[in-house]
What we know:
By secondary structure, the protein is mainly alpha-helical. It is built from 13 helices and two strands, in the order H-H-H-H-H-H-E-H-H-H-H-E-H-H-H. It has a two-stranded antiparallel ribbon with strand order 1-2. The longest helix has 25 residues, at about 40-65.
Amino acid sequence: ATVFFHRFYAKQAFQEHDRFEVAMACLLLAGKTEESPKKLDFVIRECWKLRRKAQQQQLQNKLVSGGDSPNVGGMSPTNIMSSPSSSSGGDLHMKSDEFARLKERVLLLERVILHTIGFELSIDHPFKFLIDCAQGLSKKRLLEYNPTKKAKLVGKDGQPMGKPQQNNQLVQELAQNAISFANDSLHTSLCLQFSAQQIAMACVYLSGTHAGIGPIAGKTWLDLLDGISAEELTSISVQILELVQSNRRGVDSGQFKAIRKDLDEM
């Protein structure tokens, strides 16, 4: 759904199509293409709940900060708290005019999205590629923990981990972190700029450097990641890092600076 959304707005304008309604249509379409279809009524109700919750939170933040009470997300504060289209629990009445309008609009937008993206519904995601990459590098024994991290690795019995245990944890940690970075990448337009394989390799690189995992002696990340240039790796990594640093509190900025330094040296 996120990829459909990015592809749609690469050609269409936010001023012409409400992003909330487009998001609903993308979710509806994605459910069908991923063989996990959801009923339109269900999609509208669940998305409405999320939007209403966000609007109420925005209103609360405005009131707490002592600002005025302008329209939030297209609805006035009064309408947010007591809209005739919704019940006291925040659900949208299925027999309301708003529900009928949304239903008609989402069905129309689904067709507009299909035409806009040229009916290209097959999407490669980076997740499969990054798992294969992490497992492949581990099997070939091309990665290892750095000395500082290796010294901290202990088993359940409190004893230092043996090679097999270290390798198992290395694969698990590498894949888990890479998946998190791949999820973050969907908040950017990287899916429009690079292939899923390239994004996957960049996520593996970020995961490794973030977890204290690196190539064995005599090798570099570019030697291990076949099919991506230093410029492409840097561009993908920097975009993800900028997103993570701006959206997450309490992140280790020193660690990200070290990654940026490594990329600059490449």
